[in-house]
Amino acid sequence: MLLLRKTSPQILYRAAFMAMSAIGSACAGPHGPSFPTVASYAAIGASDAVGIGASVPCGTTTPTNPACPGGTGYVPKIATLLAGDGASVVLTDLGISSAVIGPDIKNLGNLYGTTFGDKCQARTGADIIPADFLTNEIPNLPAGVSYVTIFAGSNDVIALTNALGCGAGGTTTAAQQAFITAQASAFANDYATLLSAVKRASPHARIVVANLPNLAGVPVGLLEPTATERALQALSVSFDAIIDGFTARKIPVVDLLCTTQAYAPANFSTDGLHPNDAGYAELAALMEPLLLSGAAASLSTNCPQASLAGADTKPLGRFTLHFPPPAGVR
Fold it and tell me: In this structure, what CATH number is given to the domain that contains residue 148?
């Protein structure tokens, strides 16, 4: 667990925020500026935003209440931390379990089933990827929110890894790498569209995004055969290179790829994919200071966690993906 000391950046950011609020209140007159006493926070994500794996999730497929009272996932924890800065916080949790970032990856992923009944055939029933952020979350984003967090890519990596295992990327190393490159480009385009939509709705929102851990190294990924791990790693690291580039646009990025806590078994629920209460608390503690500071430091994928599955260049061949968990809890 992260232990926040009295001299931590988080405390300093809060002190500065509250001092600014006090100054704004003192200087405000009938026509003068004042700092708002109500802040709004919107979370864009999948089952992570819903809080699957937490002792008190916000729902199952979607939050039963967008404000998620009493939730122990990272989204309500961030709202609680922000409220500690002296403002009332209006939370809108837009998370949808199993969602991917855009309709292109959703449509491709739905061509390759994961269950016994539709393995490598068109997905059916509960196996269908039901939603994407651009189609199903952005239209519900309130205008003028103060803070936005985005956690995208895990379900995309899983769906595309499954497609590779079903032969979508061909049979040669070159063809498979071309498939990964093409899907990374699609992910980048979708993410750019997502960020543009957020900024149109809330031009002054402070946005914080998270990159991905290497899914080959999370507990459930470690149970997969070597070919699956290599595919999970290639896609995770490719997507992270895109997300990390947002720091050049002054968007802070929470670095989960190179953070050791993102792989600690004690931070995962029993499914080995979703965080538990401790893991969600770690994520909230990493995100909230960046929401307050807006500091966007450059990141590097040159860390040991980026190559957990090795660097074998042989073709992946056909393989069977043993996860994700059943739909509704992804």
Answer: 3.40.50.1110
Strand 88-93 versus strand 38-44 pairing type: parallel
Q: Which domain holds residue 168?
A: 34-307
What is the pLDDT of the chain when averaged over all its residues? 85
Residue 217 domain-assigned (yes or no): yes
- DSSP letters, 148-190, are EEEE--HHHHHHHHHHHHTTTT-SSHHHHHHHHHHHHHHHHHH
pLDDT by residue (tens digit) across 218-252?
A: 999 999 988 899 999 999 999 999 999 999 999 99
Higher-pLDDT residue of 76, 302: 76
Has residue 4 got a pLDDT over 80? no
10 within domain boundaries: no
- The verdict on residue 277 lying in a domain is yes
Helix (H, G, I), strand (E, B) or coil at 225: coil
Asked if the structure places residue 190 within a domain, the reply is yes
- Over range 12-30, report the average pLDDT: 38
CA-CA distance, 256 to 184, in Å (whole number)?
18
